[in-house]
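REQUEST FORM: STRUCTURE PREDICTION
Request ID: SP-0412
Submitted by: Lab K.M.
Chain count: 1
Length (residues): 274
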Amino acid sequence: MNKQQLFENIKRKKSFLCVGLDTDIKKIPEHLLKEEDPIFAFNKAIIDATTDYCIAYKPNLAFYESMGVKGWIAFEKTVNYIKENYPDQFIIADAKRGDIGNTSAMYARTFFEELDIDSVTVAPYMGEDSVTPFLSYEGKWVILLALTSNKGSHDFQLTEDANGERLFEKVLKKSQKWANDEQMMYVVGATQGRAFEDIRKIVPNHFLLVPGIGAQGGSLEEVCKYGMNSTCGLIVNSSRGIIYVDKTENFAAAARAAAKEVQEQMAEQLKAIL
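STATUS: Completed
RESULT:
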């Protein structure tokens, strides 16, 4: 999926919501534990319920890898289900990979050849040769960690060099030499507030994947005020605030209502550019 197609989906659905499939076997409704594949059963119900109101799904690999082979099978089934039934959905493998070149090449092969997923999150700490293997696939996206929503982001990402340049700013500037805004996005946490202003000065046209609204306390209004550009430029993720709002047999309907509520807020924000 290219950048224009992504924007067309945003306009059509009046939404830039990504539903995070952080599916924890210990948190899903108990009645699903009777299913042959509880994780996939939960994901399928959530996807069917929310697809009208979102433009992307983001399975977080940790939640699947924690279950070994069974979890990986559920992950693959989830990806295939989305591709076969809702091909307009942008799929993000939230894997945060990044290693020396030949290892990154294997990670890239996993997600872009074997699974044929649209995008993968990548950690930039090891530099250019750890990222470029992911960029050799036409039509696929690298979503580079830039400024994250967790408390520990202050440990390194906000540190300044002798010229006052913060580390996340260095990542943004340097990585633009590796790929353009048709192949690279950046992770910027919703809790970072007005830092979006500084980020947009460096990457005015790139899409930003924004976790941290909902359960983590980020403000959608603030993210849009400082981060939205003429093509929206935002994919805002909500995980727990949608998929775990109800743990009864009505969980899917509750998730749908939660997604609809966020979509309606996004529709209001999009009026400024549509």
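NOTES: The chain has a mean pLDDT of 95.
Reviewed by: T.R.
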